[in-house]
Specification:
This protein is mainly alpha-helical. It has helices spanning 13-33, 39-48, 56-63, 67-79, 101-122, 127-144, and strands at 83-87, 95-99.
Length: 152
């Protein structure tokens, strides 16, 4: 027996946002996986591109991640040869993160994948419709005080 005062799942805007978001994210993750990178790693690579010697704490703040998460991502990216971790000569606890030449060269390719994924899902929108959706979503982010970047 279905109670008439209980709304169906698909009556909620959040349901549809999550539905689309999951598919957009999954498709992008699959594209990145083909290049040996996760979405979280992509965020770090993209943020570091154009910067030299960024402190992990600053990167964590910019990406809305914990320092522990940044540390793990930095270790993984360093193991892949895409990032360097340089300890301060005076204080070995302090380090800076920078892209290797390989990491720097990879970012434009990964960015093209992000652009392609966006086009695949949203390329059918006319420019005005896209602007309206983006402004609406950014307005929700501001109103709710959302800060951390969604990774999954």
């Amino acid at each position: 027996m279905v109670e008439s005062n209980i709304s169906p799942l698909d009556a909620h805007l959040g349901y549809w946002l999550r539905f689309v978001s999951n598919h957009v994210s999954h498709a992008f993750a699959a594209k990145l996986a083909g290049r040996g990178v996760t979405v979280a790693e992509w965020l770090v690579l993209r943020d570091l591109h154009g910067h030299d010697g960024v402190a992990p704490s600053l990167l964590a703040d910019r990406l809305g991640m914990t320092r522990g998460a940044i540390s793990k991502l930095a270790d993984r990216l360093a193991a892949k040869g895409l990032l360097t971790q340089t300890a301060d000569l005076d204080d070995r606890r302090y380090q800076t993160l920078a892209l290797t030449p390989e990491g720097r060269a990879l970012v434009p390719d990964l960015s093209a994948l992000a652009d392609r994924n966006d086009l695949d899902f949203f390329g059918h929108l006319d420019p005005a419709e896209r602007v309206r959706i983006e402004e609406t979503l950014k307005g929700i982010v501001r109103r709710m005080g959302l800060r951390s970047i969604p990774i999954d």
